[in-house]
Structure formats: structure tokens, C-alpha cells
Amino acid sequence: MRSGLLLAFAVIFAAGELMYSSAFYPLLLRWSGEDAVGRASALASLAWNLGTASGPPIGLFVVANASATGGWLALALGAAAAFTVAAALHSRTTV
Q1: What are the CA-CA distances from residue 78 to residues 29, 45, 59, 63, 94 (Å)?
Q2: Residue 39: which H helix or E strand, with range?
Q3: Using CA atoms, how far apart are residues 94 and 9, in angstroms rounded to an integer?
């Protein structure tokens, strides 16, 4: 069961990475406009670096100090926050 779930996670993660990598720059260009794409790209890079630097320590803290239910709850809350931000940005650009 664990191996199957791990494989499913790996496939979903890989699909997400493929979709993200091919869609990021066109989406950034569409949302920022050609005149601000450099600044938007720099801010996106800064946010990525901040997440890369802070994510693992936060994840380790949650794993070390929370139960399995608490870990899944933290993961679900993070996913909900990411979805909320993405939905807000999407609705802002489609109005």
C-alpha cells in the first residue's frame, strides 16, 4: 500500500512539475505585462528562494513535533492557502 501511494505521489508531483515549468513564464508575462516582466520575474525568484530556504526547516519541525494527523492537517492548510492565492490571482486577471 505504501509503495503504491508513494508511486502515485511521484507521478502526480512529476506531472505538476512538467505543467508548472512549461506554463510559468507565459503566465508571468500575461499577469505582469511586458513592461514589468523583469521585476515580476525577480520577485517570483525571490519568493521561490524564500520557500526553498524556509520550507524544509518548517517541514522538519512539523514532522518532529506533530502527529501524523497534525502533519496532514498542516499539509492540507498549506495546499488550501496556495489554492486561495492562486484563485485570487486568477479572478483578478479574468475580471
Answers
A1: 26, 20, 11, 14, 24
A2: helix 37-65
A3: 31
Confidence band (pLDDT; 50, 70, 90) for 54? very high
Cβ atoms within 10 Å of 43's Cβ, excluding its own: 13
Q: How far apart are CA 20 and CA 12, in angstroms?
A: 12
pLDDT, tens digit (0-9, with 9 covering 90-100), for 24-52 = 888 888 878 888 889 988 988 898 899 89
DSSP symbol at 66: S
- Helix, coil or strand: residue 1: coil
Give the separation between CA 41 and CA 76, rounded to whole angstroms: 28
Model pTM score? 0.57
* 54 grid coordinates: 524556509
Kindly state the DSSP code that residue 5 receives in the 8-state scheme.
H
Nearest to 33 by CA among 95, 93, 88: 93
